[in-house]
């Protein structure tokens, strides 16, 4: 059901589906890669999301009708390529699920009726897909979490969520790449810096990639550069 429509004189929206799914993520990632290869499209920027891509092009070098025609041909070519190359990309991230950093362990257990050990086992045994990247550089929306651990966002967001915090909300999970306000339920923390200024998109994540979380011990977490502040120890103590 792919549809291309103009949203301004210098931008178009390509909608691939009305459903969020791994197949849709594959189509979007493949299309982004194909569009990046087409120099005669004169693309300035692309913003991929769950089911669409917002594309801005250079209006001084190509007019709307020509752009949409060339873009359509490019996307048809992308569709004919079949399976997505980036779908084979697997990103494995170490996560410490310890009480000092799993700030919402008690709330998640109370909501789900599961022990926190069960929650960690369920969360870390799932393979996730990058459905969108946004909110902040490096913040990737990953799905889908197991229905057994679905939980709403916090009614009152935290003013500051520590960088590297792994959290869940509804059917999604994500890592806060830097300290920022946030309302997701914090389940653990990774010592890995997700911001990479050597990459074009500034993050280790890419659309359509698969993500796996590997539980690590407190000692491994600290050895890999992870930090546990006194503030986290105090808040974590109230949540166990």
UniProtKB/TrEMBL annotation:
Coiled coil: none annotated. Keywords: ATP-binding, Hydrolase, Nucleotide-binding. Transmembrane segments: none annotated. Residues 2-205 form the Carboxyltransferase domain. SMART domains: AHS1. GO terms for molecular function: ATP binding; hydrolase activity. It holds the Pfam family CT_C_D. InterPro entries: CT_C_D, Cyclophilin-like_dom_sf, PxpB. This is Allophanate hydrolase. It comes from Aliivibrio sifiae.
